[in-house]
Design brief:
The structure holds 2 protein chains of 2 kinds. Chain A has helices at residues 11-38, 50-56, 59-90, 97-109, 112-122, 129-135, 151-177, 180-188, 193-204, 206-221, 225-231, 242-251, 256-284. Chain A is mainly α. Chain A is globular, with a radius of gyration of 24 Å. Chain B is built from 14 helices and no strands. The relative contact order of chain B is 0.12. The chains are: A mainly alpha, B mainly alpha. At the A-B interface, α1, α3, α4, α5 and α6 of A face α1, α4, α5, α6 and α7 of B.
């Protein structure tokens, strides 16, 4: 693209100065400190991997890694499928669809914090309305967030209640960009709904799917709020995700090196995801 | 005739699914609203067994709303959140727009290096660095200050990208003509660029609003004291207290979601435009 060369050489630098300084201090700064903290120890001089060794020999860490992975493996496909179906539904041209579209957006306006606070009360074993409702069908009360069997699933559902509304917006934006002439042509050729869906819509939305997949994975690896408010990592560590473990290490056990190691591992995971995404996009040209 | 029946059946099925999802989307919010308008006794007494009274109050009262402001000082966190969000929006819109203006219109030495910084800030989500950021904030004496909540949220690669996407479409010849006419750069920015970019300012402002109003992890770390905490932190702390009446928590949550919903619904189009710009750029 053509850009302007100007005589006042300092002007562009002045314009980018505030954001550059802020990014360096508040973004690059923490990345650098966490890396340096993770490879230093009060017991050893200079560079050391002792913190990582300690972390890797710790069962709690491996449990957290497993919980984080398990959560992602369930949550990401669930959210992508539900969000895509919701987008397809509100993209239908029927009466009153804009009202439904707006309603579907609303959970996104409720922060994850508030969503968790609300759902924690709704799902409560003693005074929760969900258990009260299930009582109609003679189902015994369930400790959604206090029972080891259900806690992770409940966290996933709380996140998805809000998350699906958010990711739906991306799919809807993608669907709006699809040329409707293609559908008409396919209809005339006698293609059914599912044929059109799998042969036209989904291939055309490949970029959107890839973006949502990557953004959703990144966000979920950093999931913290519903665990901190909803379950505090419990019961029995069944929802103790990596972010929460890093938070506890730093602020409950004052073990900064351990926390830094986990943060660095999370940053590496995010970096890898970004590289894979760029490769996938570049592959298409 | 047959295909017409089939069509009707399809439409009926579609509406059923739509209503079902709408119900799931709205139920928690409507339940909050309803529970905030009843007394604690009314709520617990009608919970088991499940009847329509479990959902709808017997008598309506606004007592909870009065109590939450009078006895629990809820006005303070509301004010804190409004203040922090407003300043972040103002600062974020201005500073990110200026940077984007420089990246789109000018050629300068080191542009690529600085641009990589922006990319990095776009790729690395805020949450991932929040925990180590605490150490930096405490060294800069930002803990328990408004500045501590605002400053780290101002510069945002996502918002810079958004502005760049938009500024790209402004014809450079227009800018160049203005320079030939002797217009100063602040004037060019304020009188040519900004008026053309009004929609993107709404989008950027809305995106900053949604993320800042709803942010949790960072305020939790940096602003714990009662004087300065935001709604999200206040409600989370509030709901952790064992003795608190649930109807009051329902009231607080209802209050906290009114504004985001009221702002988002009329402006949803702008938000969708914003995330589309972001996802195209990837």
């Amino acid at each position: 693209m053509q850009r302007i060369h100007i005589k006042k050489k300092w002007l562009p630098y002045l314009l980018i100065l505030p954001t550059t300084v802020l990014i360096c201090v508040f973004k690059i700064g923490p990345i650098v400190t966490s890396i340096s903290e993770s490879v230093q120890s009060s017991k050893v001089d200079g560079f050391t991997m002792v913190n990582y060794k300690l972390l890797f020999s710790d069962k709690t860490f491996w449990n957290s890694t497993w919980v984080t992975l398990k959560m992602n493996l369930i949550m990401i496909p669930l959210q992508i499928v539900v969000a895509f179906v919701m987008a397809l539904l509100v993209n239908a041209k029927v009466k009153g669809i804009t009202v439904f579209r707006t309603i579907f957006f609303i959970p996104f306006c409720v922060s994850l914090t508030i969503s968790t606070v609300i759902w924690r009360m709704l799902l409560n074993i003693n005074d929760g309305v969900v258990n009260s409702f299930l009582g109609l069908f003679h189902i015994d009360r369930i400790g959604f967030l206090t029972d080891k069997r259900y806690a992770l699933l409940s966290v996933i559902l709380i996140c998805s209640w809000r998350g699906c509304a958010y990711w739906m917006m991306f799919f809807l934006a993608g669907l709006k960009a699809v040329d409707t002439g293609l559908y008409e042509a396919a209809k005339i050729d006698g293609c059914g709904f599912f044929q059109r869906l799998f042969c036209i819509t989904i291939p055309l939305l490949k970029h959107t799917f890839l973006f949502v997949l990557v953004a959703n994975t990144t966000a979920n690896f950093l999931l913290f709020t519903p665990v901190q408010i909803g379950t505090e990592g419990g019961p029995l560590g069944s929802t103790n995700v990596l972010m929460y473990e890093a938070y506890k290490a730093a602020f409950s056990y004052s073990n900064r090196p351990r926390s830094s190691c986990i943060v660095v591992i999370l940053l590496i995971i995010i970096g890898l995801i970004c590289i894979v995404q760029n490769k996938a996009l570049a592959g298409e040209g | 005739m047959r295909s017409r029946n089939k069509k009707r059946l399809c439409a009926a099925a579609l509406y059923m699914v739509l209503v079902l999802i709408a119900f799931v989307s709205l139920f928690p919010i409507l339940f909050c609203l309803s529970a905030s308008l009843r007394t604690q006794q009314d709520l617990t007494a009608h919970l088991f067994p499940f009847t329509i009274r479990s959902l709808v109050p017997e008598t309506f009262t606004i007592q909870n709303y009065i109590a939450i402001f009078r006895e629990y000082g809820f006005l303070k966190p509301v004010w804190n959140t409004v203040f922090v969000t407003a300043v972040t929006i103002a600062g974020g819109c201005i500073l990110n727009a200026l940077a984007a203006f420089a990246y789109t219109c000018f050629d300068f030495k080191g542009r690529t290096v600085f641009y990589i910084l922006v990319m990095l800030s776009f790729m690395v989500p805020f949450e991932s660095t929040a925990i180590p950021l605490y150490g930096i904030a405490s060294r800069l004496k930002l803990v328990d200050t408004y500045a501590g909540m605002i400053l780290p949220a101002v510069a945002d690669g996502m918002v810079i990208f958004l502005f760049i996407q938009f500024f790209k479409d402004i014809p450079l010849s227009l800018v160049e003509a203005a320079t030939v006419d002797g217009a100063s750069w602040p004037r060019i920015f304020c009188q040519i660029v900004v008026p053309m970019a009004k929609p993107v300012f709404i989008t950027a402002g809305l995106m900053i609003f949604m993320s800042q109003w709803n942010s949790y992890l960072w305020p939790l770390l940096v602003a714990r004291s009662k004087e300065i905490r935001t709604i999200q932190i206040a409600i989370s702390a509030f709901s952790g207290e064992r003795t608190i009446q649930w109807t009051l928590i329902y009231t607080a949550t209802t209050l906290s979601i009114i504004l985001p919903i009221a702002v988002f619904i009329p402006l949803q189009k702008y938000y969708v435009e914003g995330i589309t710009a972001g996802s195209v750029k990837g």
